[in-house]
Amino acid sequence: MITIRTRYYRIDPKVPNLTHIQEAAEILRKGGVVAFPTETVYGLGADGLNPEAVAKIFKAKGRPADNPLIMHVAQQKEIDLLAREIPPLAERMMELFWPGPLTLILPKSRCVPDIVTAGLDTVAVRMPAHPIALAFLKAARVPVAAPSANLSGRPSPTIGTHVLKDLAGKIDAVVDGGKTSVGLESTVLDLTSDPPVILRPGGVTLEQLQEVLGQVVLDPAIRGEYLIDGLVPRAPGMKYAHYAPRAKVFLVEGEPWQVALKMKELVEQHKAEGKRVGIICTEEMLFLCREMVPQPDHYETLGPGEDLGEVASRLYSALRNCDRYHLDVVFAQTFPENGIGVAIMNRLRKAASHRVIKA
Ligand code: TXA
Ligand code: MG
C-alpha cells in the first residue's frame, strides 16, 4: 500500500483559522479526501459529485461498496440539486433540526453519482452543526460525501488523534477541531416511507422526532432483532459488525448492585484464565466495583450515569482505549433506552456482537 502525505491542520472551533479551512477545502475541490470534525463524529469528506474522489473514501476506509454515504451541505438550498423531490415534511424537518445530527433519506436526483448511494435510488443528506464543518463545507462549494473517518468496523473518531491513528498516510488531510460534542453519529430518518422510519438512532432522539412526526417507526434491526428473525436492516451500514475493539466485549445487564457482583465474578474468572480484563462503566458503578479483588486491569468510566449525553460523548473513546490497554475481554454495563440511550445501547450491542450476560 502506497502511503501519501497527510496534511494536518489544528483549528480552534471558537476562532476558526479561515486560511487553513480554505486550504483544506481546496484539497477537497481538487479531488482529495479530507477528514473534518462535525458535532457528532469526524467525517472523511470528498467532492460528492466526483466519483473518482468518492472512490478514494472507500479505499482509505476499506469500506464495502454496498454501504452508501451521506451528502453534507452548508445550506438547505443545496438539497434541491441532490433530491429528486423534497416532500413538505422534509422541509419541515430541515427547518426544525438543521444544522444538527439528523440525516434524511430522500429520493435521489440524477446529479448524485451511483458510488455515493451504492446504487440505491435514495440519497442521505445532512447539515452538521459545527462551526468548522459549516465553514469547510461552505468553502468546498460542492456537496461533500462523508462517512465517519475511521477504518471500516472500528469505532467512529471523536478526536483528531483517532483519525490519525486509523487513516494517517491514507488520506490527504485532517482538520483537527478537538473533541466532538455529541460523540455518536447522526440519526438516520427515512422519509421515503410512510410512516417515516428511523434506520439508525443517533443525536436526535426518538422522542424529539415523535413530537414532530406523530408516528415514527424504529427499524427492528436497531435492537438487533434481525439477528434473531432474519430481518435485513434497511440502512446497509447497520448490518456490519461495528464499533468493536479487538477485545471481546460483553454487556452485563441488571440492577446496579447485581451488575457489580456479576462483574466481580467475571473479573475473577477471566483473570484466573490469564486474560487482561477491562470494565466500561459509570462513576457510580466504579464506586461499587472499587472493593473487588482481584481488580480488573483497566476501567473506562463514562461519567455520571444520569448524564446520558456525557456517556454518549465518551463511549467511542472508551471502546478505542480497550485496544490501547491491550485488553482481551471487556465487560460493559447497560443503559436505559430513553433519549440518546437508544443510540448508546445500539452501539454497545454492536460492539458486543449482541453478547449479553444477565446479572
Ligand atoms: O453523524 C454522522 O452521520 C457522521 C458524520 C460524519 O456526519 N457520518 C456517518 O456516516 O456516520 P457513515 O457512513 O458512517 O454512516 C452512514 C449511515 C450508514 O449506516 C449507511 O448505510 C446509511 O447511513 N445510509 C446512507 N445512505 C443511505 C440510503 N440512501 N439509504 C439508507 N441508508 C443510508
Ligand atoms: Mg460509520
Structure overview:
- The chain has two domains: 7-223, DHBP synthase, CATH 3.90.870.10; 248-358, 3-Layer(aba) Sandwich (Rossmann fold).
- The protein contains 13 helices and 16 strands.
- The strands form two sheets. The chain has an eleven-stranded mixed β-sheet, with helices on both faces. A five-stranded parallel β-sheet has the order 14-13-15-12-16, sandwiched between helices.
- A hairpin with a 6-residue loop joins strand 9 and strand 10 (197-200).
- It has helices at 18-29, 51-61, 79-82, 88-97, 114-117, 131-140, 160-167, 206-213, 226-229, 256-272, 283-289, 308-324, 341-351, and strands spanning 7-10, 34-36, 43-47, 70-72, 102-107, 122-126, 144-146, 173-176, 187-190, 197-200, 217-218, 248-253, 277-281, 298-301, 329-333, 356-358.
- It has 359 residues and is α/β, with parallel strands linked by helices.
- The chain is 34% helix and 18% strand.
- The model has no long low-confidence stretch (mean pLDDT 94).
- Bound molecules: threonylcarbamoyladenylate (TXA) and magnesium ion.
| Number of helical segments with 4 or more residues | 13
CATH domain class of the largest domain = Alpha Beta
Count all strands and give the number.
16
Radius of gyration over alpha carbons?
Answer: 20 Å
Assembly annotation: single chain
Helix share, percent? 25-40%
* CATH fold field value of the largest domain: DHBP synthase
* Structural class assignment: alpha/beta
Cα end-to-end separation: 46 Å
Unreliable stretches = none
What gross morphology would you assign? globular
Largest sheet: 11 strands, mixed
Strand portion, in percent? 15-25%
The molecules bound to the chains, other than polymers, are: threonylcarbamoyladenylate, magnesium ion
One letter per element, helices H and strands E, the order comes to EHEEHEHHEHEHEHEEEHEHEHEHEHEHE
Strand order of the largest sheet: 1-8-2-3-7-4-6-5-9-10-11
Q: Please tell me the CATH architecture of the largest domain by its name.
A: Alpha-Beta Complex
Q: Let me know the average pLDDT.
A: 94
